[in-house]
Amino acid sequence: MKKTLTGLVLYLAVFSAWAQQSLSGKVTDAKTGEVLVGAFVWTENLGKGAVTDEKGLFTLTKLPMGPLELRISYLGFETYRQLVSVPYSGQLEISLVSKEILTEEFIVSATRAAATTPTTFSTVDKSEIAKRNLGQDIPILLNFTPSVVSFSDAGAGVGYTGLRIRGSDQTRINATVNGIPLNDAESHGVFWVNMPDFASSVDNIQIQRGVGTSTNGAATFGASLNFQTDTRQDEAYAELDNGFGSFNTWRHTVKAGTGLLNNRFAVDARLSKITSDGYVDRAFSDLSSWFVSGGYYGEKNVIKLVAFSGKEQTYQSWWGLPEDKLENDRTWNYYTYDNETDNYQQDHYQLIYTGKVGSNWKTNLALHYTYGRGYYEQFREDDDFESYGLSPVTIGNEVIESTDIIRRRWLDNDFYGFVGSVNYVSTDGKLDVILGGGANRYDGGHFGEIIWARIAGNTNIRDRYYDNNAIKDDRNIYAKATYEVSPGLNIFGDLQLRGIDYSFAGVNDDQRIVDGQESYTFFNPKFGFSYEKGSQTWYASYAVANREPTRSDFTDNPITEVPRPERLNNIEAGVRAKSGRLSYNANFYYMDYKDQLILTGQINDVGAYIRENVESSYRAGIELDGAYQLSSSWTLGGNIAVSQNKIREFTEYVDDYSTEEFQQESFTYTDTDIAFSPNVVGSAIIEFKPLKNLSLNWLSKYVGRQYLDNTSNEARSLDAFFTNDLRISYSAQPRFFKGLELNLLINNIFNELYEPNGYTFSYFVPGGNGRELVTENFYYPQAGTNFLLGLKMKF
């Protein structure tokens, strides 16, 4: 009996192993015959799936014998279904038929560079974003793209973050979402903390370096970031994305979509929550956001409503770390008041239409509205009543002129308008013309409240000690054209006219009346050519950008001495190619600035530091980036930028407290480095795939020395740094899941102590030789070795 049972068990085991079958196939475009990478293959009756690789191939393993119902889907193609009997001899050949539904690509095409556009750009697609996205902000996710330096106030990539491209900060980088301006109209900045987990709803990002092509909103004075939000998915889906990491960092994201309903409608939604204690002491972040899009997709038009919102509370770490604490207390935080927090919410609404008229015309129109409101709260020790427009308090015989105060500084603003474009492509495809533009209005209130005072005097809670309002109208029209002169040779022209009216009135936070109005009209031409030969595209272009001063330039400077607008003349030339396993880009750039605005130490009539124009400055450099697939398992990639960034001449002003009467001393410098503009920035990525579903990535980043001001003084600089990260990704497709993804990111694996951002100021005090120069440097240290772990479940 024992022998019989043993034999039966062995027989069943062998039979079971024999019955486990595999099925492979190839998915192509029925019209062109090209393979479709990323097509989704699903077994309806088993709940198992696969995704086609770079050769359009897929394999399903551990299949039982018998009938199997396959469903194959790919964006822009009809869903394919086939009944297969397992075992199946040979390889399935599946051809998908494209749908007669207008795609969403034209929504952003008017403000983007195309393959033949003679400018320097990179595109980060959804799959690359997903690999990097474990809850950190957009600047951190873009850290390994060319010429980018990113940083975080709290030191861990969550909360207040920023980036520079070619040394240009966020106020000089134009950002759009679906072609709609994102930059704050007054400061020109983008506050990524107001858009937590936005990367989870982004389909792709195009980064144009230099002036780039004409776009909407702020001037592209160093680079532009063009975001396209999620495009529709034909199949219904749901995703749970959860993660945790160092510094008590947690991330929870839920996404779901209906797929294409009745072949015409689709709705997608996301809800996110991110919290972190931060690397810096008490620099916590509590972030939440949502995203919803719904659309009608017809044969000749798309109507889409996109809405998203972000709400943040962060404990302030804006002060930075004094130099004397770098060695032994890198997490020190100046602030101690328990509610020293920043609180802000921003809601975005976009109604987008894109349509096709005949065979040669496409149109795009978008209406938008953004509502932002919030405040930051501060405890101020022993502040003068005069600073708040208040009279001294008399108690008995004592006249009290200062007290401890808690204040809130508010922003309450509305931004709305429209953008649009029309695109004509000739029947022979040689001429491509885009006419576009937009008109937008910003209406922003700035006010401050006293919510507590140790000695209140004649004040009430929420008394406003300053209150002013600003209205800014920004209009632009542009015309772009690309014409194929001969096979492979294209000429490009782009003319933009931009008009700005800016008015402001009221009392500023320094108790000065700020009433003023300024208007500007800018003409921004761009010309160039591209030449395609084989796998290479050579290009060269000349572009002009003009930029108005920011809010603080108007309100802090005496109104009669408003700084002049800045002008940039930009030359770009390079080659990009992709052939077989190798892809690369190489380019040269020269950015010549006239009247660039910089901090010089000069102060206004109430002692606030102001920016001044410097007549001539420039950036010149070479950028190289590329990737090479050594084998099916190994891929090498990287980029490097080598540059010079110079101010030809400027005057620095240094405060002098060494005499009884305060004064400033001036020093003139020539041929100095522009602040925060390293001469070398480079990244390297090594990817190893020991198994089909397992990917190991080693990521390295080098940033050269950065000067904190424009004097090229090494005593006022950030040291060069070299960091290394390890990313491990594993994916699987177990039964009843469309996919499981496990991602582990170990940041700064060698525990490099580095600071990518900071600030400095100097002053004279009485000393042994009459006076002594004191320089105070402040830094924003980044975390040592830390990790983030994420698990994504797809249904």
UniProtKB/TrEMBL annotation:
Residues 115-222 form the TonB-dependent receptor plug domain. Keywords: Cell outer membrane, Ion transport, Iron, Iron transport, Membrane, Receptor, Signal, TonB box, Transmembrane, Transmembrane beta strand, Transport. Residues 329-749 form the TonB-dependent receptor-like beta-barrel domain. It is found in: Cell outer membrane. SUPFAM superfamilies: Carboxypeptidase regulatory domain-like, Porins. Gene3D superfamilies: Carboxypeptidase-like, regulatory domain, TonB-dependent receptor, beta-barrel domain, TonB-dependent receptor, plug domain. PROSITE patterns: TONB_DEPENDENT_REC_3 (PS52016). InterPro entries: Beta-barrel_TonB (IPR000531), Beta-barrel_TonB_sf (IPR036942), CarboxyPept-like_regulatory (IPR008969), Plug_dom (IPR012910), Plug_dom_sf (IPR037066), TonB-dep_rcpt-like (IPR039426). GO terms for cellular component: cell outer membrane. Its main location: membrane. Residues 1-19 form the signal peptide. It is a multi-pass membrane protein. GO terms for molecular function: siderophore uptake transmembrane transporter activity. It comes from the Bacteria. Belongs to the TonB-dependent receptor family. This is TonB-dependent receptor. The lineage of its organism: Bacteria, Pseudomonadati, Bacteroidota, Cytophagia, Cytophagales.
